[in-house]
Amino acid sequence: MPLSPSSSARPRPPARAPRPARPRKPGRRWLGWALAGVLLLGLVVYGRYSAQFNRYARRAYASLRANSLTGHEKTPFRSGYAVHGIDVSAYQGRIDWPLVAQNQVRFAFIKATEGGTLRDPRFSRNWREARAAGVFRGAYHYFHPNSDVTRQADLFTRTVPLGPGDLPPVLDVEHANFHDVAQMRRNVALWLRLVERHYGVRPILYSNYGFYKRHLAGHFDKYPLWLAHYEVDQPRLPASRWIIWQHSDESYVPGIRGPVDFNVFQGSFERLRALRIPPKRP
User: For 21, which DSSP code?
Assistant: First the structure.
């Protein structure tokens, strides 16, 4: 049926022209790529240094929970070894040595001195109480490469009354603040000679794996080696090269409120007993 004039279709409005696309800001595209690059780099770095990152995270967590510790926390000992020990300093605070001894700690190295002037304020107490608890004791000196070596040896020998039944003296060499590696080695050798002459027993050399490999390996092979090497199943040095392995510095043993270094001795308890300073001959 034809439409009447009144019902005729109204004219349609003209179609709107499409809006022009907004140009993308070039900075946003590069920002995305930059963020992706940073993320990728972070993953690569973490993959390479994950052990160190995890270690720092654990230590940060341990610091946060320090106030809740009771001194009865316990970390399982390293399997495959029969003789376990610790090393301590004033950092550990007051130690319940009888309780430590009850938890199969057979030996302990106690910090005595550092550099040319510093005496550990808890050395005398730890030295006395470790022996009273039946723990084989030894003492160590933290070496400063730029401090007078004769003065360092003299400080140690005046502080530590080593005698029969004690473990040999220890020189802790890991301080990297030196300029001449040959001079550092000469100073280490002199400290070792002076202390050996004083006590009549060959000292033990302590160092961490990286420092030892870079600066000490091949120069002090006649001295027993106490090696610090973490985050590994076994030290990367041959077993014939070391006698004590410090495998952790974030372990717990009842009697100490907070973390402590854990060590294993390579050999039997009888071999550890034989390592001690012998009785003086009449």
Answer: P
